[in-house]
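Practice problem. Given the sequence and the SMILES for glutathione, write out the predicted structure.
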Amino acid sequence: MLNNPSLPAGPHDDINPSTDRLPSCQFPYLCKYLDMSSTLTVHHLRRSQSERVIWLCEELGIPYNLKSYDRVPPDMKAPEEYQKIHWSGTAPVIEDGSVILAESNAIFEYILTKYSDGRLSLPPTHPHYADYVFWLHRANGGTQPALISLMFSRLGGKEESLESKYAQTRVNQNFEAMDAQLAKFQYLAGDEFTAADCISVFSLTTLRLFGAFSLEKYPNIVKWLQRISQREGYKRAMAKGDPGLEPVICAHAPENTIW
Ligand SMILES: N[C@@H](CCC(=O)N[C@@H](CS)C(=O)NCC(=O)O)C(=O)O
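Answer key:
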């Protein structure tokens, strides 16, 4: 039985969660009218931030198809086939009927608005609504760009550059704020797991395979990552998206990196 509260009550045991959203064969006109007959496809570039979209779908229990692609050495970019899906050429990308959408935050907003029935997000009336919105956007709006800037300046041997020092300051600020928030609450938007956690984990885990850094100074972030790693949705997403990859939840900097 598909565990999806957005479905009307009734006999849906025939739904294949990996292919059907509604029993489209029974209601073809309704599905066409509501544009519900199409299925969601997550185009996943392995070892990338598209892992968070798989994870979001798993947490929501919504049906989706998964298409995975390997990065191409030596620069580990997305393969040509992936780059052709959306002009941005970057992961993640989803397809939903005629929609082809890139950009993590846009994809999160699209899936949450269209398919979550309010789950994993907080309403404006919630006392932690502002925290929710802030952390939902902070990962890709602040933390991750600073981490990537630091990573590339180190790879280029420019640790002492102004750019590197600036990025390091920004990274420290973000980690300190995150650690302080997680000292008070179990999750970034209070004691409830939300999409804000889901979007924030990649920068502190899999991204460390590209630019290793330690989290030893941030015990509350580490405890949060350990809590996350116990979630069935996270385990399923990682096993499906990156089979064989041990999630990087350790406090120390990972030794085996990709670059
Ligand atoms: N702001 C974009 C960034 C996307 C991005 O840079 N993705 C990386 C993967 S983590 C990528 O596609 N890299 C492969 C490439 O550039 O070829 C988003 O959040 O979707």
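Check your answer against the key. The CA atoms of residues 71 and 78 lie 5 Å apart.
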